[in-house]
Structure formats: C-alpha cells, structure tokens
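ok, trying the design again with the full structure, not the truncated one.
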C-alpha cells in the first residue's frame, strides 16, 4: 500500500515523467500486465474489463504517456497505416475513413491520410511516399491501385485484381436492382441516370449493373437521359449541372437515379428551379446514404452503402494481413440496403 502511495506521489511531481513501472506500482500489477493492457494486445482480452478500466483511469490520472518511439524501435514496427482518398469532404470517403479510424484506434494504431484529388502523379507517388514513412499497410479508398508494394494493401471499391491485394466492394448488381425495382413498382418507365466520372472506381461497374438490371426489367434507357458528372468537385453543383443538361434535352422523364447522394441533392435543386416538384413530378434516388441524406427536405430515398462498415472491414483486413493472415480472399463483397424516404412517389400519369 505504501509503495503505491509513494509512486502516486512521485508521479504527481511537476515535470516528472511517469514510467510504466511507476504506473504498474500504482495499480498493483506487474509491468508486463500493464503493458499488455496499455498496448491493447490481443492477449489482454483475457484480462477482466474492470482491471483494464482501472489501468486506463490511473494512466489518465497520472498523465502517463507510453514511449512510442521505444516501442517502435523495440518491435521494429511503426503501428501506422496509410490511407489514400480522392478528397476529404462530406460523403463517401469521410464515412469510410470514420470506419477505418474506429477500428485502428481500438487496436492501438495511428494512421496517415493523403488526398490525391484525382491527380495521376499523386496517385502514383503517394504509396511510395507512405511506405518510406514506415507505414505497415496501405488502404486505398476509391483510388486506382496497380502497384506492388512490400506491405499489405487493401482497396475499398477497387475493381482490379492484383496479386496480394484484398478489395472491399459493394454488390453493385444487387444495388441497381433494388433501385430499379422500387421505381418500377411506382410505375416509372422513363428513368434518367446520372453516371459517375471516368476517374471514379465505381462508375463503370455501377453503370453496367444498371444497364443489366434495366434490360432484365425491359426498361429502355434513352441515351438522351444518361449524362455523366463532369469535374472533380465534391459539391452538389455537379449534379445540378448534369440535371440541367437532362432538362435541356427535352426528353421527358419521371424518375432520376443519381450516381451518389451529393449529385442527387444538386439534381433536386435543378428540378425545383425548373418548376418541377420532387417527388410529385420527378422521383429522385441517390446512392451512398450519407449522413445528411435523411435531413434533406424531403428526406432522400437512396441505396445505402455500409460505408463505415466497409472502412472497418478494410482496417481489420490490413491488420490481419500484417499479422500474417495471407489466406484472405482477393475480394470481400458487402450488401447494400434500400432506404425509402420522401423523394420517390408513384409516377405521374
């Protein structure tokens, strides 16, 4: 008891750093046990949660800071993961990153995020730059990746099979069928489609899935009612401009299936400015189910990608690969969900 009190007193001394041994003395445990808990070692799962809570509470009270550099040098590891994204903004990438972050923090890892803004030179250079900064693994989100690196690589929405790379992808075919089935049930047959940009990893796969699903349902997709997003801005403005091009074609449509929620929000603005009501005149379906989709007026009907879950799966996969799990499948497919809100209604007669 006296030893614990002495350690606590010493630890409270201004400008005195708290060692692992001092923390262990304070809580009455061995330094090895405290190290397992602080470093969130898998072995610590057998330690009672009450004990782990007591150690973390004491570490906070004593202002204990692990010697990260010593840990890295001792184990010859950085405990850092590199993450590549097109940009950090509301929408797809932000939700995936939140899932990556949740899992890595639980496992005691740090991460670096770089955004390449679809610039080919940065897409090419960033993996090597991150590797040179001693990251142990790389997660490429909506980013083409064709390099071979001496570290584990996981892609989210990567559709190129590369030896040693695991891809986390959405079932695009099922997603397209969910959206078109909903619109067909509402008697929509004249459906406009906003495609993604050429540089987006999902554009070709999603468009092919939509065409296949439409063919199965004997829906004719007029070329005049198919427009791509143009530009690399992450704002709703791209959807706004694309929808104005659709309206300028004078080809009638009663429903619009947008590439993502951000472009769907811009599309709704363009429709309203043209004097059309959503959903009475035109139904709109988005894709992703970003956080603000439910708070649009009306709430946006959309195909939900489990983006946070996809980020967690990507982070878990890269850590398993780091730990020697080489028997993982090259592709892990997740299922979408269709969320019906207020932007879809029966087709006007």
């Amino acid at each position: 008891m006296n030893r614990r009190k002495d350690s606590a007193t010493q630890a409270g001394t201004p400008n005195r750093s708290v060692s692992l041994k001092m923390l262990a003395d304070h809580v009455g445990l061995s330094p090895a046990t405290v190290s397992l808990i602080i470093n969130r070692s898998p072995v610590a799962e057998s330690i009672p949660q009450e004990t782990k809570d007591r150690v973390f509470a004491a570490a906070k009270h004593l202002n204990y800071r692990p010697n990260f550099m010593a840990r890295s040098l001792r184990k010859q590891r950085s405990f850092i993961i590199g993450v590549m994204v097109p940009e950090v903004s509301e929408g797809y990438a932000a939700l995936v990153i939140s899932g990556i972050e949740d899992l890595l923090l639980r496992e005691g890892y740090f991460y670096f995020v770089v955004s390449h803004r679809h610039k080919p030179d940065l897409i090419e250079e960033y993996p090597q730059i991150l590797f040179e900064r001693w990251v142990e693994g790389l997660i490429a989100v909506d980013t083409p990746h064709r390099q071979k690196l001496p570290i584990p690589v996981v892609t989210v929405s990567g559709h190129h099979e590369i030896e040693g790379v695991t891809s986390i992808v959405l079932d695009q075919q099922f997603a397209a069928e969910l959206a078109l089935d909903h619109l067909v049930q509402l008697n929509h047959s004249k459906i406009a489609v906003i495609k993604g940009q050429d540089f987006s990893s999902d554009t070709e796969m999603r468009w092919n899935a939509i065409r296949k699903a439409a063919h199965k349902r004997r829906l004719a997709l007029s070329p005049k009612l198919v427009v791509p997003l143009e530009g690399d801005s992450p704002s709703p403005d791209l959807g706004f401009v694309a929808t104005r091009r659709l309206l300028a074609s004078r080809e009638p449509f009663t429903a619009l299936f947008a590439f993502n929620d951000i472009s769907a929000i811009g599309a709704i603005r363009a429709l309203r400015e043209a004097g059309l009501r959503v959903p009475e005149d035109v139904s709109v379906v988005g894709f992703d189910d970003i956080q603000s989709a439910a708070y649009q007026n009306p709430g946006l009907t959309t195909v939900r990608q489990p983006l946070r879950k996809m980020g967690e799966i990507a982070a878990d996969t890269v850590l398993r690969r780091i730990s020697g799990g080489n028997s993982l499948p090259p592709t892990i497919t997740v299922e979408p969900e269709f969320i019906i809100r207020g932007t879809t209604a029966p087709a006007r007669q």
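Keeping the full-length input from now on. The CA atoms of residues 64 and 159 lie 45 Å apart.
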